Amino acid sequence: MLERIATCFFLGVSLFYLFFAQELSFGMIAAPKAGFLPILAGTAACVLTVAVWVSRKSKELTAGITGIYWRKLFFIILGLIFYIIFLQIVGYIAATVMFLFYLFKVTDTVGWLAPGVLSTTVAISFFIVFVKLLGVILP
Amino acid sequence: MNVGLLFLVGLLSLGLLTGGCSLQSNTVANQYPTKPITLIVPFAAGGSVDMMARTIEKVALRHLGQAIVVTNIPGGAATIGWNELAGAKPDGYTIGVIGMSSLLQPLYGETRYHYPTALEPFVQVISIPAIAVVRADQPWKDARDLLDYAQQHPGEIKYGHPGLGTGNHVAGEMVALSSGAHMAQVPFKGEADALAALLGGHIQLMFATPPSIKEHLKSGKVRVVGVATEQRLTDPVFSNVPTFKEQGVDVLLSFWYGFGAPKGIPEAEKSKLIAGLQAMVNDPEFKTNMEKSGMPVEYLGAQEFQQKWITDSGRLAKIVKDTGIAERIANQKK
Amino acid sequence: MDIVDMLLNGFYVSLSLSNLLACTVGVLLGTLVGVLPGIGPIGTIALLLPLSFNMNATASIIMFAGIYYGAMFGGSTTSILLNVPGEAASVITCMDGHAMAKKGRGGAALAVAAIGSFIAGTMGLIGLTFFAPMLADAALIFGPPEYFSIAVLGLIILTRLTGTSMLKSSLMAVVGIMLGTIGLDSLTGISRFSFGIDALQRGIEFSVIAMGLFGVSELLETMIQPTIKQRLQKVRFRELYPNQEEWRRSIAPIFRGGMIGFLAGLLPGPAGIISTFASYAVEKKRSKNPQEFGNGAIEGVAGPESANNAAASATMIPLLSLGLPFSAGSAILLSGFMIHGIVPGPTLINQHADLFWGLIASMYIGNVLLLIINLPLVGIFASLLKTPLNILMPIVLVVTITGAYSINNSFFDLALLIGFGILGFFMKRTGYDPAPLIIGLILGPTLETGLTQSLIIGNGNVWSFFTRPISGIILGIGLFIIIYNLSGWGGSWRKDSGY
């Protein structure tokens, strides 16, 4: 089931791409223009997705959706989104400390103090390594 | 549970505090600059333009009292970096590298800002002429020979350039237009790739700049058939290269680069900034380092640079239209 | 022999205190940078360029070169241990390297990677020493049609590397190519598929996608397991290093990888990455039990890691003998040269013999230094695996995100990272393999560039691809492989549908 969804997803992507690709002019064989490869690639992608859909081999299921703890996945992804937003607002160290702490809780670490201290130390040490040692600019 | 909540709240407020404190207020003009100045380089680290910026970084401190920090924002044929520059706050703390291509890009499509009017040029640092290069074992002694051949065999000569719309491409089309020869253009991703193709014999001609092929000229692998300047070059390696003008092809094109900033910086800061930049560019250490890197300094002060900015803008617009480059690029979209 | 003399002189130069120091600093920094995901040697060298103004030319170039190939050594560490590619060329090492780590053979993988890198790096250097000018000239014969053919062949072979279904893998490759066309195209001067988003104009950053598809998706997978508090197996010290059988199996792949990497490095484009993929493909084909690949076959680590170090040495060849940087890494080294007014090219060897041979000698020394540094570190790094997963995974996730940000300072990249991480997660569970997508992303631009240029040069004559000898041979091989596979596929299809 999930696999069919995935295939549909790719079909959607290919069609979307192809739609925009054909706005670019194709050109001639002697002077290909911007749309040349994109149109070819988009068409190939659509054909392939249809082929996958039809192919009998899709009956061979892979791991599939068994064993996905949707709740945890959802929380982690939510956390990630917030992390990125916070990075822009409060800066690297603060956001990272919060995020790490959040993640530790999501992965069922017991206690409050240990994760808190760990988050802070890790965040600060990363900051030092990346910014001071390597001169990378962090928010 | 309460302790945890308190902890989180504490963290949050700490975060907000640190975030807030970084907003500095900088108002007093006569103390400008009070913090380092960001220099946006819209090219990838390591390129010749980037080198120019980093060379300035070195001498900045003693002329302005504050350091200059180079930030690379490459991509989009430098438009991404220039967008960033044009959209930055005009408070004198953000400047950038600008060049001839800043005038070229808006002519091709929609760039977010119209650089000729959104950016203000301060000083010119380098000006590198366009040259035409062929492999040494080709029979053409100079541009005249080559163009005559091209006229007799239209479409056979292929010339390489680092991308549609780049200065090198424009140079090529100008030469083709002015001499009536029909040459096919082959795009590459950068000068190095085009040079490799030239050396391998896959293309017959390429338009480039002196620094990139100097070594090959010295070792006899290539021959320069023309240079797009008024006078012949003074560099001894290039002194016997005839100009295009001498050969009856009226093409003048040089790629220049300098520093500029978004329009609207208050007068007091602006004059200090310009004075500082001028001092830096004329600093002997800067000049020596630039010479060592193969890019001798061609200084133009604020007035003359601004003049050039405006005149070249008009000139390039006309060229791009005449050679059909603008149209060709527009044709890429239906 | 002349060359040996000059090489010895070079050793003399490179053993001077300042040069030796520069070499050490360089390789240390390179290893660190390679280990940390995201930030790579190119960014680091760029940052250090202004510093080198004050240093003497030889020392600064030695340092930069040290950073460059040091990073190749370090990149394997995080790939093996954490399934996060430390930098682009280490993507393949993630596949079997991490699988080995999960089986408790992480130390062995690290050691093999280190030693393989050393041997292959040295092999590459020997090639560089003796054959540089000849090889450089030979590389020039490859023109646009040849690059196109190589890209095509690469796509055909490498798409068959992993994954269950050829159809799905091909689809992934095409999707990769599609992703590669996003952004401002320098060939045509317009930006495609950017929808007005500035960040897209730059194109999609390959490392971010790799880190997302491989690293983040694996992290997500691990983090949602309920039994996450389980520690990875405890490893005894003796088990840290490879046992005899693993050595035996690694020797040949190391040499093969070295050769492949060396040849691949001569050509333009992302040499390091392509060499690893090619080496992996070769090892898989030669192996007696190919099913093991993807589950911890040591050849899958030995080959690719050696390849990418050999490629690093090889990319120096066009740079040093022709002055042409064929990859981003050598481009930045070129700047390192130009700062001191030295332009590499045909005259470099003669005019700056000291510098040239000093550099080469220092690369040999650097390789040895790296081996000495990395081997003991294997023990330390492997013990990192003993950290309970519930603590390790979040930290790794943060490192990955930080590293991804450091590439372009772009939040959009982070969004991409997470998006592709989620995509990769679902992809793995539905039988779509991410590897061909990466390959498509890398080879797509080369494919398109080669195609466009060749058609212009050939005046639209499609047959020009086949009439040129080199290109024709390469395409011929590709065609042969396709036909071979189709007939096999046709056969099994018939079987399935009950003929």
Care to describe what's here?
The complex is a heterotrimer of chains A (139), B (334) and C (499). Chain A has five helices and no strands. Chain A is mostly helical and 139 residues long. Chain A has two domains: 2-59; 70-133, no CATH class. In chain A, helix 1 (2-21) runs antiparallel to helix 2 (36-54) and helix 4 runs antiparallel to helix 5. Chain B is of the alpha/beta class. Chain B has two domains: 34-128 and 255-322, Bordetella uptake gene, domain 1 (D-Maltodextrin-Binding Protein, domain 2), CATH 3.40.190; 131-252, Periplasmic binding protein-like II (D-Maltodextrin-Binding Protein, domain 2), CATH 3.40.190. Chain B has 13 helices and ten strands. Chain B has helices at 2-21, 48-64, 79-86, 100-104, 115-118, 143-152, 167-179, 191-199, 210-218, 267-282, 284-292, 302-322, 325-330; strands at residues 37-41, 68-72, 94-99, 119-129, 131-135, 158-161, 184-187, 205-208, 222-227, 254-262. In chain B, strands 2-1-3-10-4 form a five-stranded mixed beta sheet, sandwiched between helices. Chain B starts with a helix and ends with a helix. Chain C is an all-alpha fold and 499 residues long. Helix content of chain C is 75%, strand content 1%. In chain C, strands 1-2 form a two-stranded antiparallel ribbon. Chains in contact: A-B, A-C, B-C. At the A-C interface, helix 1, helix 2, helix 3, helix 4 and helix 5 of A face helix 3, helix 8, helix 18, helix 19 and helix 20 of C.
Q: What is the compact description of this entry?
A:
The complex is a heterotrimer of chains A (139), B (334) and C (499). By secondary structure, chain A is an all-alpha fold. Chain A is 69% helix and 0% strand.
